[in-house]
Structure formats: C-alpha cells, structure tokens
Amino acid sequence: MKINNIGNQNINPYQRNMNKLNAAEKSGKSPSDKIEISTAAKEMQEVSKLGKERQAKVEALKDQVQSGNYTIDPKAIAKGLKNFYQS
C-alpha cells in the first residue's frame, strides 16, 4: 500500500495570501490601513501644547524685565511662600 501527498507539500503560504487579496479585490473591498493613537500619546501632545504656552509666557516676562516694565508684587510673593511651606 502506497500513500501519496503526506504532509504539507501542497501548501504555499504566499499563494494563499495572494488568493485572499484577489478575493478581496473581486468583492470590491480593498484592504485599508488603520492608525490608533494611544491615550498616553494624546497626553504627551497636550503637554507639548502647555510647554509652548509656558515658553510664550517666559518670553513675555523676559521682555518686561529687559525693558524695565516688570513690577514685583511683594504681597503675592509672600502669599506664595506661605502657601508653599504650609502645605
């Protein structure tokens, strides 16, 4: 008794993949790419926006100091120090 075609000799993964693609093309549906942005990445984008706002604020303060228009409020400084050390 002789048994032919034992094993996976007739299996071609490339051909199976091509058959799937051809079937998808015939049905009118084409494979599409999909991108998902994680919540961590979204949070990082928000932080970078805050960084730009802070940088603009620092630049405005630098300009005020250099032009001599910056005024110091000693009461606000004292209040900030008090709140910092009481917390």
TrEMBL record:
Domain of life: Bacteria
Pfam families: FlgM
Alphabetical UniProt keywords: Bacterial flagellum biogenesis, Repressor, Transcription, Transcription regulation
Biological process terms in GO annotation: bacterial-type flagellum organization; negative regulation of DNA-templated transcription
Gene3D superfamilies: Anti-sigma-28 factor FlgM (6.10.140.30)
Start and end residues of each Anti-sigma-28 factor FlgM C-terminal domain: 33-81
SUPFAM superfamilies named among the record's database cross-references: Anti-sigma factor FlgM
Family: Belongs to the FlgM family.
Name of the protein in question: Negative regulator of flagellin synthesis
Organism: [Bacillus] enclensis
